[in-house]
Design a protein that fits this description.
Elements: E1 8-12, H1 16-27, E2 31-35, H2 39-58, H3 64-71, E3 74-77, H4 80-84, E4 89-92, H5 98-111, E5 117-120, H6 127-131, E6 140-145, E7 154-159, H7 165-177, E8 181-185, H8 194-210, H9 216-225, H10 232-239, H11 241-254, H12 263-270, H13 304-320, H14 326-336, H15 343-350, H16 352-366, H17 375-379
Helix pairs in contact: 1-2, 8-13, 13-15, 13-16
Length: about 375
């Protein structure tokens, strides 16, 4: 099957990611079936799609007629099998719980047509493991969108151990038809590209707070003053501290104990302070976006330390064959975040020797092996 053969897309899950992916498919002209476990969740997702399309009409990005046509192209369900019964491609967007994902894929495998591709929107979990729940592992692929799916350009297309090349190419081409920037992940590895490259920065940011070196506001103020639209701690709040916590635990279990969540983050989770979604996290969101006092900026904090650990981790992806080139990693990082610039592009301006030295110092200071510079970073020929 080729991308042009895909006419109908099923989306399993109508939450933040699910309804966003459904809207992306509608905007690209596809028929969509969207499912969630209860009607109230389905209705909430559909309402959010309508509200988003209304905004696009107001901004004259779509016509009122197009809005009506798109809403006529979506069906909703509470049953997974019924939702996927005539889909050419199904995208799973349920919570990051492996047993739940496997259960969904087992149902999809039995219900979707034989030609259908089964995709997971997982941000970290193994496509190979998910595919084990099906009898068509060659047609199981990762299709990882970023939040909000309507706005963010990056889509990681992830190859499981048994994913066929035809499935990879069709999914890649579909992402292009959705006006996205797809990046191929050639080897099923924890965190894929974007989250894997960012993961060591989360370790560093967590340790700096845990050991009392900085406060979140000091760093966020510093980063805002040099032009970042949002500091790294505010971003953690925005995405959800529960997402950061569970992601860190998964990395800790599957990649390195260095990723174990810090005590202060666990305390936030235990207190139900998850960030923007609960009104309080690292910062207070009860009155909207938190005010960051720029006068509290830690002026001696060098942002190059964050770039150093990112570049170092990115070289591991090259060494492991997860992504084929530095340019592809840069494309992923530039399209998935707000900087518009990839780590290797930044590294060339700073100097690989300086970044390697920074990593050496961080590894020694914090006793964290994940910060140790790779042979590729030390050589600097990338």
């Amino acid at each position: 099957m080729k991308a042009e053969d895909i006419k109908k897309i099923a989306v399993i899950g109508a939450g933040d990611m699910g309804h966003g992916i459904a809207e992306v498919a509608l905007l690209a002209g596809y028929k969509v079936a969207m499912q969630d476990i209860e009607q109230k969740f389905v209705d909430r997702g559909l309402t959010r799609i309508k509200e988003s399309l209304d905004k696009l009409v107001e901004k004259q990005k779509v016509t009122a007629e197009n809005r009506e046509a798109m809403l006529g192209n979506i069906e909703t369900f509470t049953d997974v099998a019924e939702c996927a019964s005539d889909a050419d491609l199904a995208i799973e967007a349920v919570p990051e719980i492996m047993d739940l994902k496997k259960k969904v894929f087992q149902t999809l495998d039995g219900a979707a047509p034989g030609h259908a591709i089964l995709a997971s929107n997982t941000s970290n979990m193994s496509i190979t493991d998910i595919a084990l729940a099906t009898r068509r592992p060659e047609q199981v692929v990762g299709m990882h969108f970023f939040n909000p799916a309507v706005l963010m350009k990056l889509v990681e297309v992830i190859k499981g151990d048994k994913t066929g090349e035809a499935t990879m190419q069709t999914t890649y081409d579909l992402a292009l038809k959705m006006n996205k920037v797809p990046v191929r992940i050639e080897k099923d590895s924890i965190g894929f590209a974007y989250n894997r490259v960012n993961a060591p920065t989360q370790v560093l940011l967590s340790l700096m707070v845990e050991r009392g070196h900085v406060t979140p506001e000091q760093i966020d103020a510093r980063m805002r003053k040099i032009g970042m639209p949002m500091g790294p701690y505010e971003l953690m709040d925005y995405v959800g501290l529960d997402v950061a916590y569970h992601g860190a635990r998964y990395f800790s279990e599957r990649l390195s104990r260095d990723y174990e969540p810090p005590g202060w983050l666990k305390a936030k989770i235990d207190a139900g302070e998850l960030g923007k979604k609960t009104g309080r996290g690292i910062f207070d969101w009860s009155k909207g976006r938190p005010e960051i006092d720029l006068s509290k900026a830690k002026e001696d904090f060098d942002p190059a330390v964050l770039i150093a650990v990112q570049v170092n981790e990115a070289t591991k992806l090259l060494e492991e064959g997860v992504v084929n080139s530095a340019d592809e990693i840069d494309k992923a990082m530039a399209s998935g975040g707000g900087s518009g610039v990839g780590p290797f592009q930044m590294a060339r301006g700073i100097g690989y020797d300086k970044l390697a030295a920074i990593c050496e110092n961080l590894a020694h200071e914090f006793g964290v092996k994940v910060f140790e510079p790779t042979a590729t970073l030390k050589k600097g020929k990338i």
